[in-house]
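cron nightly-structures :: item 1 of 1
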Amino acid sequence: MVKVEAVIVRERVETVIDAVEEETGHVGVTVVEAIGHGRERGVTHEYRGRTFESRFLPKALLTFVVEDALAERAVTAISAAACTGHESGDGLCWTSPVKHVIHHRTGERLG
């Protein structure tokens, strides 16, 4: 099994989840609200004549655990759906191998 994680802009969460479900049939996901920045280094706001810098931007961390055969399709779906068309700030996607997966309720081992 493979863990597929992606940091994306929050406005794209539903779009990305729908894309992964459509492409792979996978429906399980964990979503965590996060803040951070990449190359864009945050943004500058102006409010009532004052300039403020926000170093960290709101993001979402999505985690999917999928069968090995579905990992590449999930990454492709995430990358396509998370793209906003801006120069930077769309996020990243990466994979990690998963050794053991156990259902808490049943004790059943997967993968």
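cron nightly-structures :: done
The longest helix spans residues 68-82.
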